[in-house]
Each structure stands twice: as structure tokens, then as C-alpha cells.
Write a structure and sequence with these properties.
The protein is α/β, with parallel strands linked by helices. Helices cover about 45% and strands about 10% of the residues. Helix 10 links the parallel strand 3 and strand 4. It is elongated. The N and C termini lie far apart (about 70 Å).
Length: about 425
């Protein structure tokens, strides 16, 4: 059985005005329906064919109509003899409107016809057909609206820097963060200069959460060194609740998994950094940079893997992302972002203290030279150190030596307890 034009139009409802406006150049419902029925003349067929060649959305809707059109025939073949429409005649070609008893109002049907087994089967089939067509039309309409919303979200603003500033300000205000953190800053001082004896000192300092950021350094999903990869995964599991807790108090979270920005290129947290307005960088401070207390010239792997390769693709999955977070592995981007938000204190966690945590463009040395207050979360970090190299101590002792080195020459450290 082939549906007539009038019937197909009845089953294929019109979309909402918003959908028409969002795709003003697309084919209308009547054209799609006539095309599916083969009722177009030559010029119309050429125009519709040209449009379908360039519009994947209309192609999907055309296929949906073509798929739904023979559905009543299939139902009729399984439900019974189609002669119930007029009581005796076989269907041949399209069915006239007055012959379709199922489409008449209920009050016009006789109880006998409604109670007939065949007619009940076809009534159910017709209702199912209407439901399927309505559902298909609703799905098409919803898909068009979603496409329009996606286009608006991905639209590049006329003034990206201004738009980013406004969005960041709104996120900051929505968090309602006006709290503070009490940090117990551990540092080391050479009480008697030239003696080479360094004493531990702890200074208590309160910092506003709105002026504090956490930078998560190179917490990758995998490392080329098996030992480092295992420790990093364990560290990420301990780090995750600390990050979530700090975020809830208003601390800005910045994810910095180096060399993986391609993975995050379409993420809104990445776009926040890209769209931040640039400002002049300050003159770098001249700070002495003594030699590390450990030898990591062999790469620091303690499980025997020698060849270095880029094993990482993204950040460790234990660590959560939130709407107000930021993503970057570029020191200048992060500096511009921090200054735009009035942030002057950075708490570093991640790996590795003797390499990336110190030396990346966004790491402790560079940000300290640019005048920002840096702090190391000493129990949420690790070192690339092989105990078979000088000073021949355990891996844990090697990490502690590097932490003490940082406390002497670069910045104080805290325990993650200060962030909970």
C-alpha cells in the first residue's frame, strides 16, 4: 500500500518555528514528503538532489521518511486481509481518503466495525504508525534545536578576551567563594650564614581562596617508566579528594598535563585559557639556582626502563574536571589567567619535583621569577630518582631531599591537610 500525498502530509507534522528559522535554506516538509513519494517534477527533482548532496541533515530526514513510508504495508501483510477498508474491494495503488475507516473520528464508527478483529488490528497498526511518525518528527525537531544550540556555544565571540573575562568573572561570582586557607608553610633557613646548616621553620599564613590556585603538574595517564607510572596512579587517587575539597572552597584549579593539549582542544576549560587577554610579562627576578641533591642523569627510572618516549595522552582519570577549572601547559597563558583573576598564590602538586614541577614554563622556578608566591604540596608529589645513582638513598629519601632543596632555595611547602 502506498500512502497518498495528503495522508503522508498528515502523518509528518510540521516542525516548530524555531527549527525553520535555524535552517531557513533547508528543504520543507512538503518537498521532503513529495520527494520520498516520487511526486516531484524534473526541475524540482534536480533542485532537491542538489540540496541533498550538500545537506546531511536533510538527507537523514529524507531517509527517515522513506523508511517510514512502506511501514503500513508491512503491518497489513502481517495483520490480515486489507479489504476491511471498504468491506470487499482489494487495494490497488493509493487509497482514497474516504476509504480509510481508521482515520475517521471515533463517533462516526459503528460498534460492530470497532469490535471486528481485523479492524482492531488495523486500528492498533494505525495508532502505532501515527506514534512512530510523531516520534520521528519530534526527534528531527529536537536534533535541529540541539545543532543550533551547539553552533551558538561554539561561536567565536567578536572580542574573545572580553568574552573570556566576563565568563570567568561570572564563574567566580557563582562560586560564592569568600573563604580562606590557613597554610603552615615549612621552609629552611641557614641560621648562621655560611655554616651549611639549615634549620626547619614553620610559618603560619592565611590566604584568601579567591586569590589561590592549584596547579596539577604532569599527572599523566601513563609514563614511560613503569615505576613512575604506578606511583603516579597511586598519587592521583590520593590527590583527587584534596582537589575536590579545595575547589569547593573557591580555589582555582588548573590542570597542566604537558604535551596533551590536543586531547583537550575542544574543552571549555581549555578555551578559558586560550581566550584570556594577554598582558605584558614582568621582568624576571634573578634567583640563584643551585645544583640538585640527587643525580637524575640516567632519567631517574628505578624499574629498569631506559628508552624515553611520550607514553602519555591525557591527565590521569582519577582526577576530576569541573566547569570552572582551567587547562594549559603554557606558562604565559597561565600567568595571564592568574593576573586577570587577581590570583597571587600557587600551590603545586604532581610530578616530578626534580624535573617538571621545578622546570616547566608554568612551574615553580618561572612563576617565582615572575613574582608569584609559590607553595609545594610536599605529600602530593614524587621524584624521578633511581636509588642506584648518587646519593644512593631510597626513592622516598631522594624525594625528601628534593623537597628540602625546594624549601631552601625556591619556595615553602605545605601538607595536603591544609587544603582539606
Amino acid at each position: 500500500m502506498k500512502l497518498t500525498k495528503e495522508e503522508l502530509f498528515r502523518y509528518y507534522p510540521r516542525p516548530s518555528p524555531g527549527s525553520i528559522e535555524s535552517r531557513a535554506n533547508c528543504l520543507g516538509e512538503d518537498e521532503l514528503a513529495r520527494a520520498a513519494m516520487g511526486a516531484l517534477n524534473r526541475p524540482e527533482r534536480d533542485r532537491v538532489a542538489d540540496h541533498l548532496a550538500a545537506c546531511s541533515e536533510c538527507v537523514e530526514e529524507f531517509r527517515l521518511i522513506r523508511w517510514l513510508q512502506p511501514w503500513p504495508e508491512q503491518v497489513a501483510a502481517t495483520a490480515g486481509d486489507p479489504s476491511f477498508f471498504d468491506g470487499s474491494a482489494e487495494l490497488n495503488g493509493s487509497v482514497e481518503k474516504e476509504e480509510i475507516d481508521l482515520l475517521r473520528p471515533v463517533w462516526r464508527r459503528t460498534p460492530q466495525r470497532l469490535l471486528a478483529a481485523n479492524r482492531l488490528s488495523y486500528l492498533v497498526a494505525a495508532l502505532l504508525l501515527i506514534f512512530v511518525l510523531t516520534l520521528g518528527a519530534w526527534g528531527i525537531s529536537l536534533r535541529r534545536q540541539n545543532q543550533r544550540l551547539a553552533a551558538l556555544l561554539n561561536e567565536t565571540p567578536a572580542n574573545p578576551a572580553q568574552s573570556s573575562t566576563a565568563a570567568n568573572k561570572a564563574l567566580k561570582e557563582s562560586s560564592g567563594s569568600n573563604g580562606s586557607l590557613t597554610l603552615h608553610l615549612r621552609t629552611r633557613v641557614e641560621t648562621f650564614k655560611g655554616s651549611g646548616i639549615w634549620d626547619e621553620a614553620v610559618i603560619e599564613r592565611t590566604v584568601p581562596t579567591s586569590k589561590t590556585a592549584i596547579i596539577i603538574c604532569d599527572m599523566w595517564d601513563k609514563h614511560w617508566c613503569e615505576g613512575a607510572s604506578r606511583r603516579c596512579d597511586e598519587l592521583a587517587a590520593r590527590m583527587a579528594p584534596v582537589i575536590d575539597g579545595a575547589r569547593s572552597t573557591g580555589v582555582q584549579i588548573i590542570h597542566s598535563p604537558s604535551d596533551t593539549m590536543t586531547f583537550y582542544s575542544d574543552w571549555p576549560q581549555r578555551r578559558r585559557l586560550i581566550l584570556t587577554a594577554e598582558i605584558p610579562l614582568p621582568k624576571a627576578l634573578e634567583i640563584p639556582d643551585p645544583k640538585l641533591p640527587i643525580n637524575d642523569s640516567d632519567g631517574g627510572c628505578d624499574t629498569g626502563q631506559k628508552p624515553w618516549y611520550r607514553a602519555w595522552t591525557r591527565e590521569n582519570s582519577h582526577i576530576n574536571f569541573a566547569q570552572g577549572d582551567a587547562i594549559s601547559d603554557n606558562g604565559k597563558e597561565i600567568y595571564h589567567f592568574l593576573k586577570e583573576h587577581g590570583i597571587d598564590t600557587i600551590i603545586y602538586m604532581g610530578v616530578h619535583t626534580n624535573m617538571c614541577v621545578l622546570n616547566r614554563s608554568f612551574a615553580i622556578k618561572q612563576m617565582t621569577r615572575w613574582g608569584l608566591q609559590c607553595v609545594l604540596a610536599r605529600d602530593l608529589t614524587d621524584t624521578m630518582y633511581n636509588p642506584q645513582s648518587p646519593p644512593y638513598v631510597s626513592h622516598e629519601q631522594g624525594t625528601e631531599l628534593v623537597v628540602q632543596y625546594i624549601e631552601k632555595y625556591w619556595c615553602p611547602s605545605i601538607s595536603s591537610r591544609d587544603l582539606r
